[in-house]
Structure formats: structure tokens, C-alpha cells
Here is the input.
Amino acid sequence: MSHIVSFSVTGLAGRTEPLRAKLNRDTNIFFGLNGSGKTSLLKILHAAMANETDILEDVPFTAAEVEIYSLNWNKVFTRSIEKHGSSQKSRSRRRSVIHREVRIQKEIVLIEEPTHEDSMQWHCTPTSPKEAATTRWAHQYLPTSRLHVSDGPFLPYTERTASHRPWLTEEELDAVFARSVEHLWNRYSAEVLGAVRTAQEQGLASILRAVLSPQSASNRRKSKLTSATAYKRVHSFLKRQGSASILGKQAVFEKRYESDATLQDVVQDIDSVEDKIKAAMTSRDTLQELITRLFMANKEVRFTDESIQVTSHSGEKIGLESLSSGEKHLLRILVEALLVGESSLIVDEPEISMHVDWQKELIHSLRALNQTAQFIFATHSPEVLADLPDEKILRI
Here is the structure.
């Protein structure tokens, strides 16, 4: 997990003075005219986080310094770079190893990946731990081409045999989007289901302990749940397992609950499991509510454990490809916001194809989904800035 603390860029888009700023932990919007350097700035910030230089070859700047806070090491690192002009076109490259931050459920681990060193490199201080110098810090960058950039090894053009066109058709681009978003959703869903399974396993262990060693119940405080609430919690728990019918009549359960200390102890454990599951599912439920409210056309989008289903109001399956351009952009950004966790989400022109009403709601919707992420956007849209305080906006 990581986020950007501050930056300083010299020569951005031909500027004579360095552009410097400290960034907010939550929301940062770069706002300015065409050609002011917004996209170039986002590329520099992304490249610093990713420890990459290829994307900077054609970016107009001379030097940059980016401060990045790493939650993994609880430390601020400074990455700096100087551009060497035309020499970049004929760079020497040698194989090396780079580290990438990967989030597995709530844990951050470093994995090694082979890469190449270029003559233009990011320099990192402090130098300890040494892995920091080669780490690609967890974040996400969405350029304006985001609908047609795949996150998985399944680009449609690898499947074509009858054509050698150097471009993709509109249908193929739609397929890239659909597969990419499904891939993202599967990653997120796996994290949620992992958290649910962990809660269930821990709850089962506690329940068995209460049943097999009922004397341990005396060490717990008396349950604050009423008998009616206890019935509802147990019913919800069993319904999720597909066995709600074994609970029996509510009146019988409530009578037993009032006098059975072991049952009270079991229900406390079930209540704890239900709270953990609810917490794990909160963001997913919020996403469903947002999409249901915002997508007003004659289609329904539903998020399941396995996929994102799009149907017409008549129930016909029509797929992600059928979404409008604005719906695709909104869905992609919202799903990315779920996955980014406490790290930075960098988006160029988030307003693309969106109605002005959606633009006005975008920041609020993202914050509702993820209150811990750092959002860094570049926009031309005054509507995206609506209701944002001045300290969240950097005019360049």
C-alpha cells in the first residue's frame, strides 16, 4: 500500500518554473487548459510509483522528484529522475530484477520480476531497505485509453486467424473492455470471498469451542442480543448456507434462547461472523446501490460472486459489451476504486463520455466506495470539481 506525498517537476510542458505541490491523502484534482501538462504530470507520477521510464520518453520535462509513502515500510521514499534528451532513443538495456507490491487480501507482499535497466533511471532515497529502490508500489493508473487496455493475457487480436488488420474493430475493442473488467471483478470478488471464508472458519471454531467446552461460556459477558434479534441473525447465517429451514419456529427458538447459556454463546459467535461478513461485503453492496441508481437506461447490472451480469429489463442477457461509453467508463473507474485499497488511483480525464450529472457525483461516489484511497485526477470538467474545497484542486 502506498500513496504520493508531494512532487516537484522541472520543465513540465515547457514551463520555466518548477511545478511543486503537496498532495492530499484523499482527493487531488489537476485542472487546466489543454497543453498545460496535466497528462504529462500524471504519467510522471505513475512512472515514479511503478519505477518505470519507458512511458517518459516523449513526456516534456527535464527532471522530477516524487515523494511516496510506503505503508509496508512506514516510511517516505523520494524518487528522482533526470531526462537525458535524445540519448533515450538508443538506450542500452541489461537484465535485472525489480520488486512489485502485490496485495493478497489485506496483506502486501513483494514478488520479484525480471526487467531491464535503462540509462534513464529513478533514484531512490533513503537506500534502506534496499528492496525499496526496485519496488513497483501498488497503485493504479488509468489513461484516456483505459477502456481498451487489457489487464490480462487475453487480447482478442491474438485469436484472429482470418485477418491481419493492424487495428481492432469496434466489436473487438468492446470485447477487450468486457474481459478486462471481468478480470478485475474476479480479483476483487476473490478478495471478498476470502474474507468471508476466513470469518466463517473463525466463527466455526468459536462455535465448536462453545459447544464442546460450554464452561468457557461463563468467561464471556452476557449477550446483549434480544431473542428476536438473535433469531434474525441465526436465520440470516443459516440462509446463507442454504439451511434456514432447520431453525424451526421463531417462538420455540426464542424460548430456548432465553434459558440456554450455550445457545447464547453460539449466537454471539454467529453475530460476530455476520458482522465480519457485512463489513467484507459493504463496498460491494455500495457499488451495487450506486450502479442501480445511476444506470437509468433499459438494462440492469448485477454483481455476483463469479461475474458482472448485464440484462435487459425483460431478463435477456446482453453482456458488458452492450453498455454505453459513459457507462463503461464509470463502471471501470468504480471497480478500480474498489481494488486499489489504501493506495493511489490515478485517472486522466475521468469525465470521458459521462453526463454532467454523473460528473458532479463522481468524487462523492468514489469516496463512498473507498474512503481510504488517494484519488489523483486530471480533468477539463468544472462539474467534476463541483462542491470540492479549493485545497483539493490544483490549477496548472
Q: What stands out?
A: The chain has two domains: 2-138+340-395, 171-339. Residues 86-94, 152-162 have pLDDT under 50 and may be disordered. The first strand starts at residue 2 and ends at 10. The radius of gyration is 25 Å.
